[in-house]
Every structure is written in structure tokens, then in C-alpha cells.
Amino acid sequence: DALADLERDTRPGRTADGSPVPLLANVGGVEDLDAVDCAGLEGVGLLRTEVLFLGRSAAPGLQEQVDAYRRVIETAGDRRVVIRTLDAGADKPLAFVTRRGEENPALGVRGFRTVRDDPELLRDQVLAIAQAARETGREVQVMAPMISTVQEAAQFAALARDCGITSVGVMVEVPAAALRTRDLLAEVDFVSIGTNDLAQYAMAADRLHGGLIDLLDTWQPAVLDLVATAARAGADAGRPVGVCGESAADPLMALVLVGLGAGSLSMSPAAAPAVRFAIARHTTDRCRAIAQAARGAVSPDGARAAALDLLDAHV
Ligand code: PEP
Ligand code: MG
């Protein structure tokens, strides 16, 4: 039946006019890689390394980290792998990183900011990633979460390059970073938009707060504007801008993201068939028109309706 056909389609992501849009996976460990294979995804767009070490009371040693990253890289075979440095804090506390007693942990020392307290932890991690890459003979891409300023991006890029990483990126998940993606891209090779946190911080709505789901909607006009600004900066700089927030898993939003200029989409593997199908049915020009229509709306529902209006009759 049609659904089974959809699930069996494991071709690379492409628009109807043949522009490649690599479909990648958000994963938390090697056990998620089976699903990546099944879904025919073209790589790992986000390895959440904090998930590898959840529940640990002491920091993992260098060799343990090398082994963990090597397993993921090896299992990914010849696919692309983007490894994110520890994003501990707020909704993902790690006992060996997280500061206790912050009043607003989501606005506190999380993600890259932990380098302020513990620069060795980040350095060890990047060294371990670089060693795992060397041992497997593969190039990996490494990015830092929760970057807010150009100086942070530059600091991370210097550290990562010093450790031997050749493709260095940062997440764009803080509005300040989205507004200044142009400047970030002068320091790093690529950026990846994290729409989960970008919505949280743009809308000042706790991402874990069930009562604020309407504000956390990534179809919010202000969130779309921030994504558009970041994507435009990538196009202007000729540097890749991907999306790794869960909004990439929404097939209609995926069309908007492609239309705004996202070069790759990383999502939960289960979302891949529907996203692949949606993209394959629409040309890049159509995606641009859909994105433009969505951005013309003044509410999330209005944006969705405007996008839906422009879909091919078959979808
Ligand atoms: C995001 O914030 O969109 C993201 C991909 O990172 P995480 O969900 O791990 O915070
Ligand atoms: Mg995030």
C-alpha cells in the first residue's frame, strides 16, 4: 500500500527539480543508527553527546569518549556525521557539569557556556572526537550548542581547529545568534539552526512548559523571521545552513525551511519518509513561494494555512 511504499523509499532527499536536500538524523547514541539506516538517511546531522553520558556522576575519561564517538562514526559508515559538544544544563542536566542552584537554568550556564567553569572538559571532548575521527579515517563535523556571540564562536573554532577538527560549526538556537549568523559564519564553516531552543528563547516560553505550546510553535512569525535571517546569511556567505530542530520533522515546515534556504534537514529518523515525500513533490521555486506565503502571515495558524494553500493538489 501507499504507506509501505513511502517507508520503502530510501532515496536521498531531493526537491522535484532535483536539488539535493540531505536528510539527516538527530541521534543520541549508536543504538539510534539502525533507524538511520532503515530510513535511508544520509547521515547524522546531530549527535547529542550529552545523551551518551546521562546519569553519570563523573566525567567520562578521554579513552571512553574516543570509544563512544568511534562507535558512532564507524556505524555511520561513509555517511556524514555532525557531532555536537556537550549541551548540558537546563532540560539536560549532567551531574558532572550542571551547576546546582541556578534560578533560571535555561538562561544559565548551559551548552558552550560551561567552558567558563571547565575549559578542560570541552577540550578533552573535542580531542576525543578528533582522535576517533583519525582512528576511523573519517572526517567529522563538530559543532557547539548555545552560542550567543561571535566571540564564543571564534573561541570554539580556535579550540576545535587546534584539536585537529577541519569542519567546525555552531548551533543557531539563540535569537542573538540568528540575527548575527552573518558574523558567526565569518568564524565557522557551517551553522545548524536548532528550532527547539530558538522558539523557546525567541518567545520567552519554557520548552518544557506544556501550557505554552502555542507560543513554542515554530510557525510563529517571529521564529520564521529568525530562521529566514540565518538562512539568508548562509546563502550570502556561501556556507551551509542546516536545520536540526524538530521543526524539520514537520513535512509542511520542511518545505518552508527549504524555501528559506536550509541546505539540509536533520530530524528523528521516523519523520524521514514523510519529509522526503513532501520535498520530492515540490520544486525549489515552489518551496520559496510557500516560505514567502508563510512569512506573510501574522499567526502560526495563518502561516500554516498560507503554506497549505500553495501545495500541489496531490499532497
Ligand atoms: C534545538 O534546540 O533545536 C536542538 C536541536 O537542540 P536540543 O533539542 O538538543 O536542545
Ligand atoms: Mg538546543
Automatic annotation (TrEMBL):
Enumerate the UniProt keywords alphabetically: Cytoplasm, Kinase, Magnesium, Metal-binding, Phosphotransferase system, Pyruvate, Sugar transport, Transferase, Transport
One cellular component term from this protein's GO annotations in UniProt: cytoplasm
* Binding residues for Mg(2+): 173, 197
Q: Name one GO molecular function term.
A: phosphoenolpyruvate-protein phosphotransferase activity
Q: Which reaction does it catalyse?
A: L-histidyl-[protein] + phosphoenolpyruvate = N(pros)-phospho-L-histidyl-[protein] + pyruvate
All residue ranges annotated as the PEP-utilising enzyme C-terminal domain in the record: 10-282
Q: What class of enzyme is it?
A: transferase
User: Which residues are named in the active-site annotation?
Assistant: 244
Q: Which residues form a coiled coil?
A: none
Cofactor names:
Mg(2+)
The protein's location, in the record's own words, is: Cytoplasm
Q: Which domain of life is it from?
A: Bacteria
The record lists phosphoenolpyruvate as bound by 48, 84, 196-197, 207
Q: Which GO terms describe its biological process?
A: phosphoenolpyruvate-dependent sugar phosphotransferase system
Predominantly, its location class is cytoplasm
> Is Ubl conjugation among this UniProt entry's keywords?
no
* EC assignment: 2.7.3.9
Q: Does the keyword Nucleotide-binding apply?
A: no
Q: Which family does it belong to?
A: Belongs to the PEP-utilizing enzyme family.
Q: What does this protein do?
A: General (non sugar-specific) component of the phosphoenolpyruvate-dependent sugar phosphotransferase system (sugar PTS). This major carbohydrate active-transport system catalyzes the phosphorylation of incoming sugar substrates concomitantly with their translocation across the cell membrane. Enzyme I transfers the phosphoryl group from phosphoenolpyruvate (PEP) to the phosphoryl carrier protein (HPr).
What is the official name of this protein in its record? Phosphoenolpyruvate-protein phosphotransferase
This chain's source organism reads Cellulomonas bogoriensis 69B4 = DSM 16987
